[in-house]
Amino acid sequence: MTKQANFKFTRRDLLKGGGALVVTFGMPGWAVAATQDGGSLSKPPLMPDQLDSYLSIAADGKVTAYFGKMDMGQGVDTAIAQIVADELDVPFERVGVLMSDTEYTLDQGGASGSTGIRSGAQPLRNAAAEARRVLLDLASEKLGIPAEGLMVTDGIIQAKNQSSRQVKYEELIGGKYFHVNLEWNERLGNALNATGKAKPKTPDQYKVVGKSMPRIDVPGKVFGQTPYVTDIKRPGMWHGRILRPPVAGATPTGWDQNSISDIPDAQVVRIKDFIGVVAPEEWGAINAARQLKVTWSEVKSPFPEMDDLYDYIRRTPHVEENAGGGFGGRVPVDEGPVNKALEGAAKVIEAEYEHPFQSHACMGPACAVVDARSDRATVWTGSQKAHKTREGVAKLLELPVDKVRGIWVPGPGSYGRNDAGDAAMDAALLSKAIGRPVRVQGMRHEGHGWDPKGPASVITLRAGLDAEGNVIAHRFQAKGFSAWDVRSNEASPSDTLAGLLVGWPKNTRHNYGTPSESYDFPTKLHFWRTIPPFLETASPLRTAHFRDPQGPQVHFASESFIDEIAAAVGQDPVEFRLKYLTDPRDIAVVEAAAKAAGWETRTSPRRDRQSGDVLTGRGIAYASRGGTTVATVAEVEVNRQSGRVWAKRFVVAHDCGLIINPDGLKRTIEGNIIQALSRALKEEVQFDRNNVTSIDWLSYPILDSTEAPESIEVVQINRPEVAPTGAGEPSTRQVAAAVANAIFDATGARIRRVPFTPERVKASLA
């Protein structure tokens, strides 16, 4: 596995020679590089307007798609292979996907916003269609038959009326370059797109898209053949660890070198406020980090008492507000119309919902390897955005960005901005300091303690009803810490611990979010406000994107409150939603989820008396995200003696447009439900006045297998006429509200703070 991760060739080197070369890069799928025929043609540069930047066909007919995103476990690479196979008319098994290596792939934004298929597939689809067109033209010339008289089956072009006259793709282009220009929209990242002269296929022509093809990454993972970022080794590599202060915000003022004198060759690296240790062996680095006696500056305790968190949010003046839910600018909030409507209401309902800081709590702490030389650097990272990691490392090391190579290697997961980018920056500084490759591997207390956190918030809602119980006004206000205290990538060292410690200025920007739904209330105002971070420096409570950024917080409040209004007016929760929803697709998912769940029309809480300690209830919640709309029904059991909540059954109706891989979609939704349920029932970052205190699986528990739902049923609404929109996050945002609504249905008690711990459930029942 180590040899697979050793990159010694440029793309040009790989594409030279007389025969096809298959190279595994230690990532999902394989990479098949076409070879150059006789050296007569030069390799086109890696540019968005070059067909060769998106795919190649080797001399044995295997196809490689060069995908500038990566997969976080949803099987995006499998879906890309399906799309490319369909457009090229080649067997699915013949397509491999090389992901997120800056030397081989363009910057398509990495993994973010459920855009792997929604935007990431577009240029690959267009490139494959264009490649098919070019190959048909080449075959037309070779066979002497007009292109319209040819057909393609499994990568073989043949005359429609004379199948014996045929030619294979590899006989036309295998091992050669296309040298075909595409029209590029001159945008990089998620928005990158390029088109050719060919028109891609329509859904009725698909043969592979829409089928549950097997995941191409699973065999390598199951049989231990896929190198993870923790497996990367380089010749002469040393190991590093970073020292963090006992009081957040403190900086090193000195250290005792003698405290690690018994560790062979261990060294201390200090650059301004950054301090770490390196050693030839990992155990040496671990012990050096434990033993090194560091003197830290005296600083004031930076955090309030944890019990004061939500009141702190309420009383702290906000720095940003936005009436429209968008990001990036101060938009004055005009509360006049909604306040006037509320004043004229026959009844006003109000509620506040509280959501804590939450940790990514990846199964493994971050790891990265950096080989930094005076004129170049290579980074192996598990970050979602290897292209952005390259940019950040280049700035940190003061190198031209084209002299830094970023290589994505599977890690322990991310789903937002976790600590992977920080590990890369730490390794870069250590590697430059000692002039050799350095591997930085975090420890459990560091992964939990110092990763960027999902922001805490208080969300207030008010609704005004007329005399007949109709909603005439709806006001939503979110107030909390910004999700952009740390940006969603590490393109700037300012967004990393290492960058801040060596003097890069803090770059906090502000955003939060509002509900994404289509309820039609006569007067409606939704806005957010954010407060400053606790610390304007390296902090264990810095906040950043976390799976479906702010979606769970916003929709826990919004969809819980919808249920509160329904209960206040004596209406069934499903009927109440359908009364006010306007988008046909939103209506369809709510109806589909209710039907599949066997929803009984009645009000909540349930009126029948339940005997015994275990109470049962059902709840529904719905939301949209990025063009995908989802409704979720949860059925729960609540033990009134222990306070334990078991979410026994989920029914999810999911509409993400065209479905590429039904089984992959189902597994993705199941993963969303499990992780979101863990966040709803278990997860809450604990801290004291000095630091984060939830630094392991005991102090930051997550859902275990004994607490998982008995069933998760998925209703997939396929809309071939609608472009695929994404599934990596949308079914995350309704879970907490659906469970809270089910708890209310079972018990009559409304829980307005996440997580729903047994202690809070018992307190609400009391």
Description:
- The protein is of the alpha+beta class.
- The protein folds into four domains: 3-213, Aldehyde oxidase/xanthine dehydrogenase, molybdopterin binding domain (Aldehyde Oxidoreductase, domain 4, 2-Layer Sandwich); 238-299 and 360-450, Aldehyde oxidase/xanthine dehydrogenase, molybdopterin binding domain (Aldehyde Oxidoreductase, domain 4), CATH 3.30.365; 309-352 and 453-531, Aldehyde Oxidoreductase, domain 4 (2-Layer Sandwich), CATH 3.30.365; 551-765, Aldehyde Oxidoreductase, domain 4.
- It has 19 helices and 30 strands.
- The strands form nine sheets. A seven-stranded mixed beta sheet has the order 13-14-11-22-19-20-21, sandwiched between helices.
- Helix 10 packs parallel to helix 11.
- The model is unreliable at 1-40 (pLDDT under 50).
Annotate the secondary structure layout.
Elements: H1 11-14, E1 21-23, E2 31-33, E3 55-57, E4 63-67, H2 76-88, E5 95-99, H3 115-118, H4 121-143, E6 150-153, E7 156-159, E8 162-168, H5 169-172, E9 183-184, E10 194-195, H6 218-222, E11 238-242, E12 252-256, E13 267-271, E14 274-279, H7 282-291, E15 293-296, H8 309-315, E16 320-322, H9 336-343, E17 347-355, E18 358-359, E19 367-372, E20 377-381, H10 386-397, E21 404-408, H11 420-434, E22 438-441, H12 444-450, E23 453-454, E24 457-465, E25 471-481, H13 497-501, E26 523-531, H14 551-568, H15 573-580, H16 584-597, E27 614-625, E28 628-639, E29 645-655, H17 662-681, E30 711-716, H18 735-747, H19 758-765
Parallel strand pairs: 4-5, 11-22, 20-21, 25-26, 29-30
Antiparallel strand pairs: 1-2, 3-4, 6-7, 7-8, 9-10, 11-14, 12-15, 13-14, 16-26, 17-24, 18-23, 19-20, 19-22, 24-25, 27-28, 28-29
